[in-house]
Amino acid sequence: MRLGSFWLSALVGLAAASPAFAADPPPLKVLFLGDTGHHQPAARFRQLQPVMAARGITLTYTDKLDDLNPETLNKYDGLAIYANHTKFTDPAQEKALLDYVASGKGFIPLHCASYCFIDSKPYVDLVGAQFRSHTTGTFRTHIETRDHPITRGYGGFESWDETYVHTKHNTKDRTVLETRVEGDVKEPWSWVRTQGKGRVFYTAWGHDQRTWSHPGFQVLVERGIRWACGQDLTEVPTYTDRPQMTAKRTDVKPFEYQEAQIPFYSPKANRGGADRINQMQKPLPVEESIKHYITPKDFEVKTFVTEDQLGGKPLAMAWDERGRLWVSLTLDYPNELKPQGEGRDRIVCCEDSDGDGVCDKVTLFADKLSIPTSILPYAGGLIVHQAPHTLFLKDTDGDGKADVRDILFTGWGTGDTHAGPSYLRYGLDNWVYGSLGYSGFVGEVGGERHNFRMGYYRFKVEHDKTVPGGLKVTKLEFLRSTSNNTWGFGLTEDGLAFGSTANGCPIVHMPIPNRYYEKVRGLTPGVLQNIAPDYHFEPVTDKVRQVDWHGGFTAAAGCTVYTARTYPQEYWNRTAFITEPTGHLVATFVLNRAGADYTAKLGWNLLASDDEWAAPIQAEVGPDGNMWVLDWYNFIVQHNPTPAGFRTGRRGAYETPLRDKTHGRIYRVVYTKSKGEKPAALASATPAQLVEALKHPNMTWRQHAQRLLLDRNQQDVAPALAALVKDESVDAAGLNAGALHALWTLDGLGAIGQYPAEVKAALKHKSAAVRRAAVQLVAHAGGDAGVNALLESGALADADVQVRLAALLAIADAKPSAECGKAVAEALAKVEGADDKVYGEALTAAAAAQDVYFLAAAGSHTYAPRGLAVVQMVAKHYASGKSAGSLNEVLTTLATAKPDVTEAILNGFSAGWPDGKKAALTADGEKAVATLLTKAPAAARGRVLRLAGVWGVKGLDAQMAEIAKGLLTIVADAKADDTARVDAAKQVVEFAGGDDTTAAKLLDAVTAQASPQFAAGVFDALAGAKAKNLGPAVVAKLGSLPPAARPAALRLVLARPEPTAAFLDAVEAGKLRFDMLDLDQKTALAAHPNKAVSERAKKLLSLGGGLPDADRQKVIEQLASSIKKTGDPANGKKLFTQHCAKCHRHSGEGQQIGPDLTGMAVHPKEELAIAILDPSRSVEGNYKAYTLKALDGRVLTGLLAAESKTAVELLDAENKRHAVRRDDIDELTESKKSLMPEGFEKQMKPDEVADLLEFLTQKGKYVSIPLDKVATVVSTLGMFFEPDGDVERLILRDWAPRTVNSVPFYLVDPQGARIKNMVLLYGPQGKVPPKMPKSVTVPCNTAAKAIHLLSGVGGWNALQPSKDGSGSVSMIVRLHYADGTTEDHPLKNGVHFADYIHRVDVPGSKFAFAMRGQQMRYLAVTPKKPDVIKQIEFVKGPDSSAPVVMAVTVETP
């Protein structure tokens, strides 16, 4: 029976097939008339035909107008047209069509059919209207008629399409079903008509494959066909991509307010401080607050327990195997963390003894705790995170109170209490998982030392009767890093990991743990990134207070996947719930596969309130299958930063008496159309009942049953578990929970190896989740035989990418074998796998684990560039290993390998093989080397020689000398191409870098006439040389080098202690001066990790007065007069170029390592002086300096760009990236200082400081106003509907400054799609504009002759100019003068503003330039007063447009 609704665009894959009708209607036959035009009807037919065929509708394609005859038409129940035939070729065709419909047949014109037969009025009247014009965009329509059979229960959908506007409307017998709303206009979009006895269904949807592939469109067309052909739609599926929400209740009392001083960071304010609001809503009692929540229709919020029963403020919750709810309560959070045993926090047990869904008993379990951030029932007690400890609490004497308090391990950071450990989860694999914020972990677990920061981890808990609580943690593993403070971790029913972080990153996916990257020497995993297209949320109130990331997830917490069956099928294992306390909501994200990775899309709110105290921080699947929500209920959510006028507390939160310590409620979000799930009651369950519970529809109970079976630690249940594995059935979500949990339970009991046949059979199970688990466990079941079974099963070619991914990771864990190496080499040859980043990383890990056998097998395959990169990485990994005893075999296979594979392997060997590491080559190995010298690609032969020399191959001296001579000749040839000369220098260093004579010849090539690029290239090449006297030789040459060549030479000198000492010798002897060094280099010398170098540098610097004063405020005060002084901006620009441009940009010049300084003229000199002279006063974490000391003596200083357990990457002050293997690191130290050094006063005289400040703050004729701090959108992503909406992006080939109408404009570079670069203001239409601010404000602080704008465009603006100069106001430029007055300049639609979509000229602005096919316009506003303008505010006008501002330049008087 085909019932219910498809939530398909959001929930990919839930309705790939259509179930049968209860009583199948007669099949329909429809003729589909197309043409050969640009809409490609034949291609669209091929998309729709199989979909309709599966639903009992047979489509037949034709593009011949001659088929419009009675004989042909009467063979069909309906006629669909999707074409642009301009006219009938025979009048009889028109008559045949009209008679056909009037006789009672169905007519289904789609999209462009409304511009068919354009001169036939009868045809236009039959359709109901004619197409007139369109733009494009991503949008959804509004259902106008909900009681029509076609739209009854149909929710609409969203897609990119052409925005049709129609004309010649025939409203006779026409009913409009859908409209496309544009401003105040409702454009008819889908409609029905009757004509005689016939019916007509038309929709304007359908320009290209994006709409035609959309399930919502397919359902609409199916329903339209069936209605037009006279069928009953009662049993036909409907469609919606989001549920209908309940309306706000009207029986609520008015909010009451009280006076209070509350920090408020306005979305339109500049960064740097907070405004204040003085009205604070009073808290509501539970029975009133609950009325303010809205939910999807058919859901209801019910109270389970409140603060009155709990006796405190809830912080975390979890259920045990009896269905009891355990809740941690806090008074100490956030700033009053107490010593062990002295806290004021508690854990209570909440019970519903009569089963009515309301707590009727609360029992104290443990007290004297302090900030217990997470709890997990385990082994009859609770595992509790209470930083710095993880505890195990248990009641052993039956009084209900914990008498065992055992510290399982210690090491969680306590510096910031909202950045500690959280979200304990029991995993399918019987490990305990959790999340961690930036307070980090430093400690020892199971004899292994750990030091990691924010991200995800797991630990192994084992039973041990020798310890008080009977449990011990034997291993801790850090899984992956996140980019922000992290408070949320969740698992799907098949064990896939997701999480949430703060600061604009609501949901991440963890496909591969660190341990697999760590198998590959030098491979860095990077941090997990947001998998949602953006960070926006959808609160139901504007009473939202946020510090940053306004309008979106800034405090996202929790990440719980729906893993029960009480909610509708659309939720099952496909939706994740993220709480956001600042938005007063719980959001539902829909998970969609993207290769081996996932994407997520914000679907709808499960829960949202307009009560300002509502603050959900945890949402979990409860024992009844409903979601339970912990409402922290707090008006003050903000932890940090500390607003002006407030103090920072001891544990990182700003201090305010308004923080609530008493309120908190736990709700059940009940689906009213379900009876809920039957509790499993596992406390007294028999072993057989526990096994049976592994099939329970709710994963909460299944996990308890699995854990309890492991607590028993008896293998008597193994046969029953094996029987579950044999069950081939799957549910509607494609899962077999019983088989899945049975496999992992067998593994936990150590019995998996007793059932190799069952595990092998599970590799072919109908459920992909079961196959994936079998892949993960098969090696445990049978060792080598298990691996062979894995390979034989075809798992590497499984239809499910998660199974293939698991197979690769299993091979990465397997013992090296020829079979495994061959299998990975074959898998890599599949381009589609190698191009998937996550899958490619898994391939790399598997290949590296099987390196010898993989490299031997790779030579017979053809690889795409991405595949060759994997081959090179694996070769580098192999070469850098401690043992390479199989080198002879690998070299032998290279002799017959394909050239590109040979080159990739040799490149990897050359990059990874350490100098001085000999190889025991056999005769065959040496023969292979000789063969490679003649057969290897020419570019690789020098590397072969270098490697042969390192390996100890004899008899190659003459060849090496000859090649070196040739390469040195190229280097010395001043007429040769610089690129070729530098490449030759690199090759020379590769195989002769230890020779002083060779190094000297390379240095000799760097003459005074050499280009800076060549000189820098030679010194960068020499940085890898090991010549003994290289350092002193470079130091001796420093004085004669051209200035442009010195930075690379100094990098080489200062990177190692020996040349650094030679440099200090030269300074001490008066041959060189410290002023040759940049300030950051002096700072690095003074902080050098080599104590002798550091002390000597400090002494020499102090003798020359080069050390900065540690009292930075004193320095600022000493320079106060210079800071206020009027300087020389021309000299200031020279100083900027000399001292600042290598890290900062200004007006497009310089490097962007630190912040861009363009537009600093709007800030006062005093503010800039503090940033320059005391850069570490308020340093952001991403600008902190790290110092790395390598084992070979190299010293690097820079920003930490990336890290893993095996490698780190630093970005230095020269914008150079340095990747270093952890095995090569002696020390890595984080400084509390900014990478920007202190001591600029030592580099410049006071007057020069004044000149630099004058340059940075100069208000010449034109002053650029930076928009980077107020920009609201990334213009290279879709700006109006969807991030992937191509036509709605504003893109330039480069983002360099531009001059328009003789006015210079500074553009914000979006850096691909990472940086917000334009201002988009509020608009009521689309998806993005409604979330934008209604105004933004930028500083000005100068009088202005004119304010020049790159603007005048927007969404839903005019497509033609206003004829009489009238028009609605799109945007107001509001000038705020220093005297407190304001002045408005309204900019009108059709006069100043036009649509962005293509060039449209309007009288009040000029065309500036094209951005692909779109436009940007120029206009200017002239102030009425000559006074100083403090701020410029851009305010959204009252019309329906969404205006854009790209750049602002002020022209001074």
Question: What is the alpha-carbon Rg in Å?
Answer: 35 Å
Regions with pLDDT < 50 over 5+ consecutive residues?
1-22, 268-274, 1178-1182
Cα distance, first to last residue? 77 Å
Average pLDDT, all residues: 87
Strand line-up across the major sheet: 3-2-4-5-13-12-11-8
Assign the structural class, choosing from mainly alpha, mainly beta, alpha/beta, alpha+beta, or little secondary structure.
alpha+beta
Supply the CATH superfamily name of the domain at 300-671.
TolB, C-terminal domain
Provide the CATH topology of the domain at 300-671. Neuraminidase
Give a count of the beta strands, DSSP E runs of length 2 or more: 64
Coarse shape:
globular
What share of the residues lie within helices?
A: 25-40%
Q: Biggest sheet, in brief?
A: 8 strands, mixed
**Tally the helices: what do you get?**
40
GO molecular function, one term: heme binding
Protein name: Azurin
Pfam family, one: Cytochrom_C
InterPro entries: 6-blade_b-propeller_TolB-like, ARM-like, ARM-type_fold, Class_I_gatase-like, Cyt_c-like_dom, Cyt_c-like_dom_sf, DUF7133, Haem-bd_dom_put
Describe this structure in words.
It holds the Pfam family ThuA. GO terms for molecular function: electron transfer activity; heme binding; metal ion binding. Residues 1-22 form the signal peptide. It comes from Fimbriiglobus ruber. InterPro entries: 6-blade_b-propeller_TolB-like, ARM-like, ARM-type_fold, Class_I_gatase-like, Cyt_c-like_dom, Cyt_c-like_dom_sf, DUF7133, Haem-bd_dom_put. With 1453 residues, the protein is α+β, with helices and mostly antiparallel strands. Among the domains are: 5-239, 3-Layer(aba) Sandwich (Rossmann fold); 300-671, Neuraminidase (6 Propeller); 1099-1254, SH3 type barrels (Roll), CATH 2.30.30.100; 1259-1451, Jelly Rolls, CATH 2.60.120. The chain contains 40 helices and 64 strands. The strands form 18 sheets. The chain has an eight-stranded mixed beta sheet. It has a five-stranded antiparallel beta sheet with strand order 17-39-38-37-36. The longest helix has 25 residues, at 768-792. The chain starts with a strand and ends with a strand. Mean pLDDT is 87; it is low at 1-22, 268-274 and 1178-1182.
